[in-house]
Design brief:
By secondary structure, the protein is α+β, with helices and mostly antiparallel strands. The protein contains 4 helices and 18 strands.
Length: about 450
């Protein structure tokens, strides 16, 4: 039995957490190196001590290969520089122009010869006609010698005219050849310009490749100068390592290092993260069942990588808050005194906050019942009968204002003296007779 009480509701948040380093650092390994030895997970490494030792012979082989690559790129660059200067060539149009000029000269000579042959033939024709008109008799036959001379002049004229035709055809052919040669020279010049531009771009590309290879070679020599070791910059603990001894690295392997001491990290669900803030008190319970009260130092939203890691920890049986992927934030607090700092050591936590409002009527949650006509509770009533005083249950409707994990703030027709039924050995309904069992203690 319980009686109504006045007070405030108490809201409770709880979750899981881990002991983590104050600082976490991710260290990426050198690429294309063979691991000789590496610090194990959970090991403590002093500042200046070796975290990873790479094999010296393999490093030297890598340096030799990179040096050969640099030399090869330099030679290729020199070849491209020669190509970028272009090549010497004789213009096709220059030879075609000489042929054209020769054809023009030949035509001029042929025309000159044809004109002279024409004049000689015309003169012979005119002389023969004058002789016949002055001294010859009508009907008299022309002298055979004159006829033979005229025939020779006519043949010479025909030959000269044929030479003119031949020279004209040669000139036309030479002109066509010259025009074609000019077009070919223009096309070749454009091709040469494109080839020079491509070669210049090739030189620029090889410059970039050479600079990158030289930078990588310099980095490899720095690795060699450091003895092929990656050393700790400060005292740290190896939290996680994806390194296998004897394997050749790809550059994606990571060492996660913890430093700066230890602190507590509590996982908070997305629904509860607005309820916790710096200065809030929480109670932690360690695996040894030891309890400590402490104050939250800070609250930080969980990024996607932290949420993923938290989910992985839960799947491995480690601590976390809620189901995988539900972590919305983390609270942090200093590691309490006399608590050993062990990475990922689990604990549970609880935080409580009272409601701002003080309620006049609060009853235990176990007293609430649901019926077809709403929420109610049962109280104990007494009546007199033939057999004496009889105790029975009476139904009282209630309106629920707010709840916490144990109580409900309500409005109901209840007095401070009413005894509210919160539990029973058998199911009790309104009107059932009840008997109070006193506790033995």
């Amino acid at each position: 039995m319980e009686k109504i009480k006045k007070g405030r509701l108490t809201y409770t948040w709880e979750g899981k957490g881990q002991i983590v380093p104050a600082q976490e650092t991710k260290l990426f390994l050198w690429p294309q190196q063979q691991v000789e030895s590496a610090a194990k997970e959970g090991s403590t490494v002093k500042a200046g001590d070796c975290l990873v030792q790479f094999r010296a012979e393999y490093l030297q082989q890598t340096i030799d290969k990179k040096q050969a690559e640099v030399e090869r790129l330099r030679l290729q660059r020199e070849q491209q520089q020669v190509s970028a200067r272009g090549s010497q060539r004789v213009s096709s149009a220059a030879g075609a122009a000489l042929t054209l000029q020769s054809a023009q000269n030949r035509l001029a000579e042929a025309e000159q010869k044809a004109a002279e042959a024409q004049a000689a033939y015309d003169g012979a024709e005119a002389g023969g006609q004058g002789e016949e008109g002055t001294g010859g008799q009508p009907g008299a036959e022309e002298d055979p010698g004159i006829q033979e001379q005229k025939q020779a002049l006519y043949q010479a004229l025909q030959s000269a005219q044929a030479e003119v035709q031949s020279a004209n055809q040669a000139l036309e052919d030479a002109q066509n050849a010259y025009d074609l040669a000019c077009r070919e020279d223009a096309a070749q010049e454009a091709n040469d310009a494109n080839a020079r531009e491509a070669a210049e771009l090739g030189v620029q590309d090889l410059n970039v490749q050479t600079e990158q290879a030289e930078s990588e070679l310099q980095k490899l020599r720095e690795y060699q100068d450091s003895g092929g070791k990656i050393c700790a910059e400060q005292d740290c603990v190896v939290l996680r390592s994806g390194i296998q001894e004897g394997a050749v690295t790809t550059g994606s392997e990571i060492l996660v290092l913890g430093s700066g001491g230890w602190r507590l990290r509590g996982s908070v669900s997305g629904e509860d993260k607005e309820q916790l803030s710096a200065g809030k008190e929480v109670e932690i319970t360690l695996p040894s069942s030891e309890k400590r009260i402490l104050k939250i130092e800070s609250v930080e939203n969980a990024d996607s990588s932290q949420s993923k890691e938290e989910g992985q920890s839960q799947s491995e049986g480690q601590s976390g808050s809620g189901a995988s992927g539900e972590t919305g934030a983390f609270w942090y607090a200093p590691l309490p005194e006399r608590v050993e700092g062990v990475y990922n050591k689990a604990f549970t936590w609880t935080a409580k906050t009272e409601s701002q409002e003080e309620y006049e009527q609060m009853i235990p949650l176990s007293a609430l019942r649901e019926g077809t006509d709403g929420t109610y509770c049962l109280i104990l009533t007494e009546s007199s009968g033939m057999l004496g005083t009889v105790q029975s249950s009476k139904r009282v409707p209630v309106s629920v204002l707010e709840k916490d994990s144990q109580n409900a703030a309500v409005i109901a027709e209840l007095s401070r003296e009413d005894q509210i039924i919160v539990s029973s050995e058998k199911y009790v309904e309104e009107g059932d007779q009840v008997r109070i069992i006193e506790n033995a203690n």
